[in-house]
Every structure is written in C-alpha cells, then in structure tokens.
Amino acid sequence: MENETYLCDKCNGKGNIPTKNPDVVKVCPKCHGKKELDWIENVVGVTKIKSFTDIQQEIIEQMGDDMVKKVDEEMMKMYTKTKGPSSQNINITTILKVLKEIEILK
C-alpha cells in the first residue's frame, strides 16, 4: 500500500494562513506548517511541534520566574540583616543594593 498524501485543506498546502497584516503569516492550525498530510493526519490532525518562538518564550518566562524568586530571596536576606524582621520599611537604596549584589543591575 502506497503512502498517499493530501494537501492540507485549511491552508491549501501552503503551510500558513495569511493575516490582516500582509507582512505577518500564521502557521496553519491544521497541518502546523507541514503542508501535506497522510490520511490519518488528514482525519485527526497533526500533533503540534513547538516552534523556536514557543520554546524561546517558555525559557524567557522561566528565567523571569527564577529572577523574581532570587530577588525575593535576596531582599529577605537584606531585610533581615539590615532592618530586622519587625521593621516594615525597605527603601529604594536597599532594593538597588540587592539588585546589584545579585548582578541584575550593573
């Protein structure tokens, strides 16, 4: 039996769908840029493969989360060293000092 392929009927085998902005194209939601589908994919669709942009965004979000946690930890260390746990005031100078110590600001 031969592996017959079909052009994606959502994007007409182009792999992308035009948007309102002519300079921007959207990856086809049915074939995910594959353009041609075998009969199973034509019926059930294609499993989405993460794009470089998707992976990059996940990494940026994780780095942001990690940075926030580190800043929080360092702020608490500085807070307990300089003011003590009973004080509620952390001034901007203390915040900048912490950010420089953890190399966010240079």
Could you explain how this protein is built, in words?
The protein is α+β, with helices and mostly antiparallel strands. Helices cover 44% and strands 11% of the residues. The strands form two sheets. The chain has a two-stranded antiparallel ribbon. A two-stranded antiparallel ribbon has the order 2-3. The longest helix is centred in the middle third of the chain and has 31 residues, at 52-82. The termini are far apart. The model has no long low-confidence stretch (mean pLDDT 78).
Provide a brief overview of the structure.
This protein is of the alpha+beta class and 106 residues long. Helices cover 44% and strands 11% of the residues. Helix 2 packs across helix 3.
Distance between the termini: 65 Å
* Sheet with most strands: 2 strands, antiparallel
The percent of residues in helical segments reads: 40-55%
SSE string, helices as H and strands as E: EEEEHHH
Q: SS-based structural class?
A: alpha+beta
Mean pLDDT: 78
Low-confidence stretches: none
Order of strands in the sheet with most strands = 1-4
Number of helices: 3
- Global outline: elongated
Beta strand %: 5-15%
Count of individual beta strands: 4
List the SSEs and their pairings.
Layout: E1 5-7, E2 16-18, E3 25-27, E4 36-38, H1 39-44, H2 52-82, H3 92-101
Antiparallel strand pairs: 1-4, 2-3
Helix pairs in contact: 2-3
Main traits of this protein?
two-stranded antiparallel sheet, alpha+beta, 106 residues
